[in-house]
């Protein structure tokens, strides 16, 4: 297009034409953006609290956008596993992931490992005082440093210990190789109990147990059951010693480039799916435990009060080590959150 108005077109009309032409690519771009495909990758099966949350989120988004926004869910590590899902998100290869809170330490956010402290929470209502309050928000603020946005927390539940023997006292752990997530707190916990931590991706865990690369592991019963770990572990000890929860995170660039109403629709659907997930986590773990009992593959042990106290005492140094690593300020914030009345 010429830089000067041609003689036969009035200047006003020419300017309007230029303005229209200049806007055209953007207008087309925004029309093209109206169909969105959102890729959500995670590492567990569909029949777990996280798998159910992802399916519910997909259903809500697709129904409310009349199919204009599609959510593709890639469960069970089909697309990315523990070692690469966060990087895939940062590079924009996927748009949402929901790693366990234990997996944020290795991207430079060790304060998320607060959730891994053994025997920290009595129940899920205590967890929510942290995740749904100021401390949860403060943890999410740190994600910006990694180009990520935190959209919400939700639970799996409390972890149990498994091996080919009962694990009820520190002496039971002596010399065992225990698979752990990539969390220094969880590794320290296993050392404090006398075991040797071996960091492995979730997707590799069952095979490592089956082949004897590791002797045991920890996870809520829903993960234990849906991965078929009961087929390769003879004993599950109901220690309830630690919490496993997740944060749904998205790529900041992806999030900010969404049109405001799409962002609102996606966020609203996600919050509802996470609220449902928070309601069903306990139920799913109970159902998995009932199925495990019926399967008769694995002996199930309960801790006595005295055994629980001895395990608690053994892991006390783990709390002190994290306080030294991330600073007392985070611990004060944690105490404050736990002192709040229930949400
Ligand atoms: C694990 O690696 O044990 C868990 O974080 C898997 C998960 O996402 O529940």
Break the fold down into its secondary structure elements and pairings:
Layout (H helix, E strand, L loop, with lengths): L10 H22 L3 E6 L7 H16 L4 E6 L10 H7 L4 E2 L26 H8 L2 H10 L4 E16 L13 E4 L3 H9 L3 E4 L2 H9 L6 E3 L1 H6 L8 E17 H6 L2 H36 L3 E4 L2 H10 L1 H11 L1 H12 L4
Helix pairs in contact: 2-10, 4-13, 6-12
Brief sketch in words of this structure:
The chain is an alpha/beta fold and 343 residues long. 47% of the residues lie in helices and 18% in strands.
What does this 3D model show about the protein?
The protein has about 350 residues and is of the alpha/beta class. The protein has 13 helices and 9 strands. It has helices at about 10-30, 50-65, 85-90, 125-130, 135-145, 185-190, 200-210, 220-225, 250-255, 260-295, 305-315, 315-325, 330-340; strands at about 35-40, 70-75, 95, 150-165, 175-180, 195-200, 215-220, 235-250, 300. Strands 1, 2, 3, 4, 7, 8 and 9 form a 7-stranded mixed sheet that branches. It has a two-stranded parallel ribbon with strand order 5-6. It is globular and about 60 Å long. The model is unreliable at about 1-30 (pLDDT under 50). It binds (2S)-2-hydroxybutanedioic acid. (2S)-2-hydroxybutanedioic acid binds near residues 44, 100, 156, 181 and 223.
